[in-house]
């Protein structure tokens, strides 16, 4: 390696004697290095922990000004590359985003409407007016919002504005899951068995599901990002899935068409990054492992996949390129596959945009995908051949969300960041974010705080760096999911690569609880008007209990949400029923056929409780409160209606996911405290029963 740098030094010295410009000199060094040092990682020839440098291509004329039709971290990501390429940028924003980071980074900014996305970031008329006002030559859509909207691309084309993405034909073909599946079959891409038409109604959905065979996946034809997607295991779930998927699809994409296909149980979700130009060239840039998901949305991604061998990787890549060429694809895009335990792979969908998880591909290939998209949009051919695309090292990405991981692996949290510090001082760490101290996480937009990426020479190093990065990440003011991310990356199954799309529910069947803690309590237990002192300590699922000098070891799964608890007491198996429990320490249990009412407090709480007034407990079965912040999209009852336990009362949409709220018991509706269109917070009262 020392000889390599001596030779590079000689080139520099020769360049200085010849009075070459710095750009010419750097280009000459880069070309020599690529020729003579193929064994050395190109990624490490770039600036450490940065995106690919565009300095070597500064002579290429692209655009003078680009409007970024997005917000948050992806808008910041696009603006960074534009700055490196010497391109001026225009940010758009809603009124509540006026002081956002992406607005401050851009050279110009235009407000396109109020907070709701339909009136701002999806407001095509306002965005077109911003383009005209700023005289932007091209638009980068980022991901989400209008990134896969063919009508937006058509509007731009009509005004001679370049859309930095594929043409409208490719967007339409791949954006429609029904048409894309037919095209994939024609291109000889492996596809999942299913119904290739549009499902008309719930009855037809049930008929099709029975023909395919349960379980089935119901999903939006124009969808993506896990929205408008439901798994159904029987007729009833198919009917409910059809209703909710169509509603979510209409809300998220303005298109309620659905398709149904066979659900492949326990698959891996592995995707291939592709890149095409307007000259018929297309490449595959290796794979990304995206199997760690919750509610069909990715949480942790990595590149490459620990599961694929070179033969399977090449087969998947070649099929992805075949599909891209079939639709004359010209930009960065992603072909997603489901892969079973035998490495059989099936086409899932193609995303005609830049993916959220694109940084891990950039880390192992050394390419700046945003730069490549801009070059292709201007009409330049690809600069690389398939043989040029390396796999150098390993990269892992964690999506850091403002979510409570202890609630369904992540229900949205809102608030203001009172303190925020990214761990970018650590080696091999990259953070793509669009926030700063004081930023608000609101109900209007995706709760993502950032994408945390670590890079290493191998998977072990990348994961260790991720551990350190998560430990050094400072986030105050909102609940976040770092506890979940941190535990997943050290889980033995994950470390071995034994993962699939059901990983979270398999590893945490009762929900995420956090790391087990060793704790000791001195408790005061009141039973039949007598108070007993008990000392308890635990490690994981095992408790050591001491009462009146007698020590017992008690082990259970401790799922208090279950009506039955199987408990092992010093080797003797017992079954206990937890009939009720309250936060104040009151609990009703059934043991050996007898119901016991006990009051359990810590010793200190018991000593202080005599000074407290007793609070009348709220009858939670007679009321319905919102479990999360969101918007009420439908109310199914009115005062005076009779409802049964489990009957739907209303539907709340949070981050474009619809959630059915149901009655806790049978009774008559006393009052309804919400209506369609209302914004509600966590804990807000929705309905009362008599």
TrEMBL record:
Pathway: Metabolic intermediate metabolism; propanoyl-CoA degradation; succinyl-CoA from propanoyl-CoA: step 1/3. It catalyses: butanoyl-CoA + hydrogencarbonate + ATP = (2S)-ethylmalonyl-CoA + ADP + phosphate + H(+); propanoyl-CoA + hydrogencarbonate + ATP = (S)-methylmalonyl-CoA + ADP + phosphate + H(+). Its main location: mitochondrion. Signal peptide: none annotated. GO terms for molecular function: ATP binding; metal ion binding; propionyl-CoA carboxylase activity. GO terms for biological process: lipid catabolic process. Its EC number is 6.4.1.3. It is an enzyme of class 6 (ligase). Residues 181-378 form the ATP-grasp domain. Residues 614-690 form the Lipoyl-binding domain. Keywords: Acetylation, ATP-binding, Biotin, Ligase, Lipid degradation, Lipid metabolism, Magnesium, Manganese, Metal-binding, Mitochondrion, Nucleotide-binding, Phosphoprotein, Transit peptide. PROSITE patterns: ATP_GRASP, BC, BIOTIN, BIOTINYL_LIPOYL, CPSASE_1, CPSASE_2. InterPro entries: ATP-grasp (IPR011761), ATP_grasp_subdomain_1 (IPR013815), BC-like_N (IPR005481), Biotin_BS (IPR001882), Biotin_carboxylase_complex (IPR050856), Biotin_carboxylation_dom (IPR011764), Biotin_COase_C (IPR005482), Biotin_lipoyl (IPR000089). Its cofactor is biotin. Residues 62-509 form the Biotin carboxylation domain. It is found in: Mitochondrion matrix. GO terms for cellular component: mitochondrial matrix. It holds the Pfam family CPSase_L_D2. The holoenzyme is a dodecamer composed of 6 PCCA/alpha subunits and 6 PCCB/beta subunits. Interacts (via the biotin carboxylation domain) with SIRT4. Interacts with SIRT3 and SIRT5. This is Propionyl-CoA carboxylase alpha chain, mitochondrial.
